[in-house]
Amino acid sequence: MGSIFGLKGVFSIQGPRSIYVYSLFIGLLSGFGAYGFNWALTWTESFTFGNLMGYNPGIPSGDMHFHSIGNVGSISPFWILFLPAIGGLLVGIITSFFCMEAQGGGTDSLIYSFHFKEGKIQAKVPFYKALATILTLGSGGSGGKEGPTAQIGAGFGSSLAGFLGAGARARRTLMLAGTAGGLGAIFRAPLGGAITAVEMVYQEDIESDSLVPCILSSVTAYLTYTSIAGSGSIFSVQEYSLNDYRHIPLYIVLGLLCYVVGFFFVKVYHFVQDVFSKLPLPNFLKPAFGGLIVGCIALLFPEVLGSGFGLIQRMINGEVLESTSFGFSGPFFLLAVALFKVFSTSVTVGSGSSGGLLGPSFAIGGMLGAFVGAMAQTLFPELNIIIFPFLLVGMGSFFAGVARAPIAGMVMVCDMIGSYELLPPLMIVSVIAVVLSHKFSIYRNQIKNRFLSPSHHWDMNQDIMDRIRITDHFSEFRKYAMVSEHVSLTELQTNAPGIQASDFILVGPEEEYKGIVSLRKNRILPEFEEDLKNLITCGEIVQDVPSVNRNDTLGKALQILLEYDVDKLAIVEDGKCLGYLRYIDLFNAYQNEVKNKQRKSV
User: Fold this and answer.
1) DSSP secondary structure letter of residue 382
2) Using CA atoms, how far apart are residues 32 and 527, in angstroms rounded to an integer?
């Protein structure tokens, strides 16, 4: 439903510049949303971990602004065992009776929306996703907080696109921009958030059309978030650079280890998903059962509770991690934490609780890197190994392998530590992990590349469209939906049903082309038609849409239709509008061209 004075037309998306402006706005909203979510989650964790479970998982340097865990009592086996199940039960009730889309990791559902739902996300999803994740992670579930923040931002983008009446292409872009804003804010990673958003939707490609909007949104969200929570990266790291090239073989070993454990993680996670989907239990009880399993694991290894980012910060600070339950430490304890984190994350998210997979991937990879570094300290003391660089490289490389996102994994870690000094070893290990992991991905809805995605079904044959000239298939053009710029908007609305059109070509007295008026974007409500009759002319609300001539190609015509979200395009020669072409006209010409080529090839 349009606004009274055509405000929707004023604020409608009319090209790339409009997308850029709205990306900034979405980034602003995403930054505030991420801050509110992180505040609520950290406050919840301070109560449940500190007062109930008696376990201090640590806190990343970037989250020190929030209310952190204060006085921690003694370990409570009762709460460690049963609290994840209680949280799972509450999440199961939410996802079964209020919002089914709030279950699981979140990122996979965003990818599915991008490819198969034209970027549409229900407005209620971000709220319920945030609530479900707070309950999951606050009760000790093993997951990440990037899922809800990405969905909060993506929900803002999708809802704004729907309000503006944007087309599918613009909606997908704004959805990814919101995703980038959520990631950029919660991880304090302005560039990493943008790269992750455009890379995660494909296995071997990136959504390059959305890169600039994602950067604008991510940077804006990051600035908004840090203006409230304070500047700085999420992890506080001392300066380091790779000066001893004898360490490189150790990084290669880390890359191989990331591949092996990454393969194991993907298989276990997908297996758990399939088992719980067939489990003969009511859906609202499945997350509770998964939480009980996580509680059993946590009795032995409380270190698997939560996102794991606190443990990473403790190790970066030089602390030697020691088992809370058994009192042992060393390289194999770190490896055990990584492997048990694989199981706890798979059961938490795979059973239907709400939590991201990106955060746990960083935690698992970090423990693997710490394991390699600790082993190297023991076996090769002469190399003067420092553990935390291996930990950080393992974080990015493990995620790059399981998510098929090599650039995102590298840049995200560099952003999270506020330094690019570790980029060389990150590149080495990430490439090894990604090359070896080319046949699997943690995200089931990822598509191999743009050409196989329904969102780009025309791109595959764009070269054919670019070779076909308009004059090759059209000698005359339609004129039914051509109107004078002096026609009033009320008159156009009255006559539109008889013409069976929603977009109209606007011409001047000499039939010179003026632009396009879309009743989908500009409409006077029936109750105001009498009061505003003849007050608004079409020339006052015209949209400036480029025209084409008969020697232009179908590819150029289609690009303009998609970019400006109109359903017809003016054909202009010598300053005079000859008529217009519609979507269906372009598609018919394309089909005829393909059929002619097929006949000639027989």
Assistant:
1) G
2) 38
pLDDT digits (tens, 9 = 90+) for 205-226: 888 888 999 999 999 999 999 9
Share of the chain above pLDDT 90, in %: 40
Tokens of 252: 């290669």
**Assigned domain for 7 exists:** no
Same domain as 408, residue 320: yes
Amino acid at 6: G
Residues 471 and 430 in one domain: no
> pLDDT for 478-490, tens place per residue?
898 999 988 888 8
Evaluated on CA atoms 422, 424, 427, 433, the torsion sign reads negative
Examine the domain organization and report whether 94 and 224 are in the same domain. Answer: yes
Model confidence, pTM: 0.75
Q: Please indicate, yes or no, if residue 10 is contained in any of the structural domains.
A: no
pLDDT value of residue 15: 65
Look up the domain containing 470 and give its range.
Answer: 462-601
Side chain identity at residue 469, one-letter code: R
Q: Give dist(CA 11, CA 511) in Å, integer.
A: 28
Maximum Cα–Cα distance for the chain, whole Å? 89
User: What number of other Cβ atoms are within 10 A of residue 529's Cβ?
Assistant: 14
For residue 67, what are its two tokens?
Answer: 């209310």
Per cent of the chain over pLDDT 70 is 92
| Token digits of residue 272 | 């758990």
Burial of 136 (0-12, 13-18, 19+ CB in 10 A): buried
